[in-house]
Specification:
There is one protein chain. The protein has two helices and six strands; from the N terminus they run αββαββββ. By secondary structure, the chain is of the alpha+beta class.
Length: about 130
């Protein structure tokens, strides 16, 4: 499979769609459609899970009432299997908490005429914190 020449456009459109769905409580459940039943992996603050059911269980267990992702940068790379690596940096605002920096990496895997999230790695960017 060749490199996808539209990797930047696809990665940026995906990112906008993902965070728009995530930040809206009414559409957050639809994120399940972006993952694969068995072939998707999420690493959330070091905790790993596999498959749509476990990933959505984790997303739904988050305790905020309101959330907003403010994206600072999106870097996309084509992959030799037709997939796309997407690296996102930004700030996360939940409820009345102060904004926190975050980074999130996605590997979008082609399936038919679309993509699914094969890998999703999320971390808050915490500086000057004692190592554990």
């Amino acid at each position: 499979m060749a490199l996808n020449p539209n990797f930047n456009q696809i990665g940026e459109m995906f990112t906008k769609q993902y965070y728009a769905m995530f930040d809206n409580a009414a559409t957050r459940g639809e994120l399940a459609k972006l993952y694969n039943t068995e072939q998707s992996f999420l690493s959330f603050e070091g905790q790993q899970m596999q498959g749509t059911a476990k990933i959505m269980e984790k997303i739904n267990s988050l305790t905020f009432q309101s959330i907003a992702h403010i994206v600072t940068s999106i870097d996309c790379h084509p992959m030799f299997d037709g997939g796309i690596l997407v690296n996102v940096m930004g700030q996360l605002k939940t409820d009345n908490d102060p904004p926190q920096s975050f980074m999130q990496n996605f590997v979008l895997k082609p399936m038919g005429d679309s993509f699914f999230i094969q890998h999703d790695v999320f971390r808050l960017v915490l500086h000057n914190v004692a190592a554990h």
